[in-house]
Amino acid sequence: MDCKISWTNRAWLSYKANIEYLEQAWTIKEISNFVLLVDNKLALLSKNPKMGSQRHKSQPNILCTLVHKRVLLIYQHKPAQNEIDLLVF
User: Fold this and answer.
1) How many CB atoms lie within 10 A of CB 32?
2) Model's pTM, two decimal places?
3) CATH of the domain spanning 4-88
4) For residue 81, what are the CA distances in angstroms to 55, 62, 68, 86?
5) pLDDT (tens digit, 9 = 90+) per residue, 31-82?
6) What's the burial of 63, exposed, middle or buried (CB within 10 Å: 0-12/13-18/19+)?
7) How far apart are CA 3 and CA 17, in angstroms?
8) Where are the domains positioned within the chain?
């Protein structure tokens, strides 16, 4: 069963900041590609929440995964609730 993905306020704000940066420096096509990369990564995470690497040994459910060569996604996997909380991009 796929995990439910929830966005924290901080994740949403950092995602939005990435989009705003791209709007200043890049084309619409590149922005669309970034959005697609995020959507694809979230679909993969939903099916395989442990795909990221562990951030700290003391917090085994805080993981990170590369979305783009300059953008890392940090998230929390809650196996008991079958849920992923996106923490920050």
Assistant:
1) 11
2) 0.88
3) 3.30.2310.20
4) 21, 15, 28, 14
5) 999 999 999 999 999 999 999 999 888 888 999 999 988 899 999 999 999 9
6) buried
7) 26
8) 4-88
